Amino acid sequence: MKVFVLSQGGTPLMPTTPRRARLWLKARRAKVVRHEPFTIQLCFETTSHTQSVTLGVDTGSQSVGVAATSNGCVLFQAEVRLRTDISEKLTQRRTYRRARRSRKTRYRAPRWANRRRAEGWLPPSISSKLAATLKAIHFVASLLPVCQVNVEIASFDMQKMRDPEITGISYQQGSLFGYQVREYVLEKWHRTCVYCGKKDTALQIEHLVPKARGGSDSVGNLTLACQPCNQRKGNQTASEFGFPHIQAQALLPLRDAAHVSALKTRLVAQLLQQFGKARVQVRYGYQTKYQRIQILDLPKSHTNDAVAIACEIGEMVRPLETVYGIRCLPRGQYQRFNGLLSSHKCWAPRKVRGFKLYEVVEVQGDVGYIAGRREKGAFIIKDVTSGKNRAEITPRKLVRVARPTQGFLIAQKPILGSIRKEGGAGTPS
Ligand SMILES: [Zn+2]
């Protein structure tokens, strides 16, 4: 594990070994600025010579993977858990306001006439996710001299394929191209078995007219089927199997395929604005998948996808043993009044028994964060990565590990925690 280094002026330099950091700290030539991830700042002038660091971002609705690579090494890997409580909290605020309105009935202007949405408005839940993703990118850029940011925007590149049904693009034009066609077919048939409609199962790329009967490998002859359906169909064509409409549908091209979510469009736009056109590169899901499976041979997880996005296609890197788990936190307690008819003002102290909310503590040999405090009684400790209840324990027994920085709760977590089931299509049969 490397130690992150900031220059005297605070700009990020290349990370160093723990040994050198220790010597610097001992000689008082550096100071600690952050414990998690461990970062030091130099107290002497240096040349600001850095190597090129590439940052890969795997966006998602629940969590975001970020990874920074340089010269075949992964320098930083983290999974950022986004907040999912925004819409719930806004509903709560709305009900409070509604109740207050019927309680204090002064004249209010009609609501329908005084609301307008700004250009480029995003729903609060999505705009929170966008802000958190950008914040995570800037967080890594504050630790490492990031030269380039790679973002995945769609699962395949429609421009590169042009009109696959017309040009008759074949499934077997090089291994990377196979991945492209596979993503296209998955998108086109909505990731379901066309014969039984089953979702969330291992799907196979299936030839409508079997290859043994002269069927081609081109996109117009491919569809998705689950293993049992594929086996039952055997050597029949789709029409013979009782699905003539599927065979007709297969010839229609996928029109609005390069669909990019509002979040990704805005993310790329913001990155272009902040990092400049030359430093932002757009990636596609099929490239990520090819790089992760064929070149790096890594299981599916947000952080591994981020590593694959950060690499050049065909570049070999070693992933880190441990990844960081980052949770996005609400900034504070906004409740001002409570009690019947909101008559009692809240005076929640910043510290209860010396502890603040969301501090990382060691409890019973494990690490958790403070999710609830009581003036008299046990504190509620939750797990850093999953957010599940861990213990209710008296504050006397807690040992502080870290305070949250920049609205993030950061902790190291073992790499096995984030592995998920592999999805997608298998080889054709
Ligand atoms: Zn099926």
Find the count of extended strands (DSSP E, 2+ residues).
Answer: 20
The biggest beta sheet is recorded as: 7 strands, mixed
Tally the helices.
11
Main-sheet strand order equals 10-7-4-5-6-11-19
What low-confidence regions span 5 or more consecutive residues with pLDDT below 50? Answer: 415-429
Describe it.
- The chain is α/β, with parallel strands linked by helices.
- Helices cover 27% and strands 24% of the residues.
- It is built from eleven helices and 20 strands.
- The strands form five sheets. A seven-stranded mixed beta sheet has the order 10-7-4-5-6-11-19, sandwiched between helices.
- Strand 14 and strand 15 form a beta hairpin.
- Helix 3 (124-143) packs parallel to helix 9.
- The radius of gyration is 26 Å and the shape is globular.
- Zinc ion (ZN) binds at residues 193, 195-196, 198, 225-226, 229.
